[in-house]
Amino acid sequence: MKKLSVSQKILPVLAYSPSIVKPMKPILVFAVTMALLNSVIVYGSVNKGLERSIGSISLTGPVTINGQPATSGQTLFSTNRIVTSLHSQSLVDLTNSVRLNLDEDTDLTIESSNAHVRAGLPNGRMSCALPAGVSLDLRTTDASIRILGSEAVIFNASTTECEGTTISVEKGQLQIGWPGSERTVSAGETVTTSSATHNFNPRKRIGLWILIGTGVGILLAAVIGKKPEPETAAPGGCIDLLSGESNCR
Fold first, then answer.
1. For residue 140, which of 11, 104, 159, 200 is within the disulfide window of CB 3.0 to 4.6 Å?
2. Is the pTM of this model over 0.90?
3. Tens of pLDDT, residues 37-67
4. Domain containing 21: what range?
């Protein structure tokens, strides 16, 4: 005779015992809910653990990543906005062997894959060492820098809204373009986009012309509207200085 387990003996009884199942229904619902919630938490943790790291960061002084305080040695994932404050610096080591050294007061947004780096530098100064086989697209406040990845490149970049962008190349070459101009910069060369025409964006130039026009209009109105002052009448008497005699009547 086949021996039944305890569960095999109890389950059939539970199935046909409404008086037992009904009080246990809330307990069963709670148990199922907790099991589903636990599976969601575990799934999210596994996904976070599987998210691909693009590199790590070393820093001195206050630095933020995506608006949160960063710590030296922190791992970077996906898209990162790195901001250094006054008297602080950071060194970014990417898994594709690209190295970025950020100076103080620098704002850099970076995305990276095995063979390409995309970055934005709206303000600040940085140095970049790019190995052969990795391309780069960098956007500054007024220029676009492109490196094809055919050779190793080392360059320095600084940019501000008022002074434009300055690029100096130490090794290799890169392409830089800005409104009205484009050129190749090779090792030992430096190029800057700053000039009288680039110091202001179009909106600022329009505002400047409006201000100048308003000032000229006010000045013209003051000149045109000014009435000649009437001549002051001579005093009641006058003396001929040469003769010493008065010739007034």
1. 159
2. no
3. 665 454 444 444 457 899 999 999 999 999 9
4. 7-50
